[in-house]
Amino acid sequence: MIRAWQFVLSSLMIGTLAPAFEARAQEEPKVTLENLYVDLAVPDLPALSLFGLNPSKVSRPGTLKELSVSVFPLAGAEAAIGPGVAVAWAPVYTFANSIDDYRKPVLRRLAFSLVTSKEGKTDAVNAGFGVRVMLHDGADPIMSPDYERGVLTILASGDVSTRVSQAFQQNQARPLLQKLAARMAGGNETVQFQIIADLLTPWDIRGPAPTPFTVGAKVENFSKAVIATADRLKLSRPDLADFAGEIGQLAAAYLTQVVTTASTLRTQLAKHDQEFRESHWNAPVVSADAGVVAQSPTGKWGDLADPSVGGLFSAAFPAGRHGQIVLQAHGQKRTGAESSDTSNIASGARYLVGTSTKRFSAEFFMDKVESTDAEKHGTSRRFTVGAEFRLGQGFWVEAAFGSDRRPGESGWHLLSLANFKYAFKSAARFTQIPGSVESE
């Protein structure tokens, strides 16, 4: 009676979970390093960083995403910066179809971005284009030997699914198969051994699941395997009616074990993702940006004029387990003759402390402008404190407040800024493992 109730309860549970495993039955996913992804942070977009439109003037380089967007400001603004939007695209995720493609030194290093923003409260609009080159990215999991070794350790010899499958075959399937083999082969022990060896394969937890994912489908698949074995060994086909109850119970236990094993493997991989994220969010990252920006006094694209070119170098280094220091150098020069600004050179430093999903920061930034306009000519200084938080997969909010001192003025001005950054597709085109970081 107890075994019968176990059979009923297992069947009910499998019936509930069957829809989620229909896809797995149709196409068994190949679990490789290519499936994995860690969401460390949506990086500052190149055009935003290059032209000083981030809430944090000191740009923090980060692992590239395929398509990212930033909308600013959510709250507050500098007088010279009005509402704007920026998008960035990293072609490696669009064109790479394998790990080898991803690891090509040129393709994986580039990101392109566009930005438009109002010039304060005027009708003028700034439009810019930027390109980022990742010189070094210690936070990229696919390029990390540590991450790869951890994944392969889980997936390689001695992994959970292999050990569980072997235990299930020997402890639960073999007793039934021994009785069935004895019925089919009589006293011939050699033939019995061949039958058992053949019929253990359908009970491999790692094998393809039945379609549909039901006890009935698994019983039918096993019955076909018994018939095929009998025909191959030129034996009489057995009447499986005498074993129907035991086969049904074994099928229910098999499907339950498939569900449990898959969940365990994904849990291990998700834990590995979390450990990598926590230990590498502040890994060394170095990037260089270049771009061009122009302004339209009327807000019309056809009136864009007075372009300037710029370059930015940013490097981030770990400062203890929970900290990171970012250093930046930035230069921009006008190529048109209409603007009063001829060039500017800036530098700054930023200190972050926190975790992979939330960080606080403090930064200092200096900007020296060469201009024929006396109100702009000179050196400005800015100090801010801020924070950035991951609200969901690929979705980050950043805010900063502080004060700045502008050329020709003796006092400090209060300022506050905020924006959000979102990566529409924050992983490669390779199939995700269900239950990994996507589900957090």
Assembly annotation: single chain
Just name the CATH architecture of the largest domain. Answer: Beta Barrel
Give the biggest sheet: 12 strands, antiparallel, barrel
By DSSP (H or I, 4+ residues per run), the number of helices equals: 9
Mean of residue pLDDT values: 76
The CATH superfamily of the largest domain is monomeric porin ompg
* Helix vs. strand class: alpha+beta
Could you tell me the radius of gyration in angstroms? 31 Å
What order do the SSEs take from the amino end to the carboxyl end, as H and E?
Answer: HHEEHHEEHHHHHEEEEEEEE
- What share of residues are in beta strands? 25-35%
What ranges have pLDDT less than 50 throughout 5 or more consecutive residues? Answer: 1-40, 426-440
**What is the domain total for the residues?**
2
Using the coordinates shown, work out and report the CATH topology of the largest domain.
Answer: Porin
**Overall CATH class of the largest domain:** Mainly Beta
Number of DSSP E strands: 12
CA(first)-CA(last) distance: 41 Å
> Helicity level, as a percent range?
25-40%
Strand line-up across the major sheet: 1-2-3-4-5-6-7-8-9-10-11-12
Give the overall form.
elongated
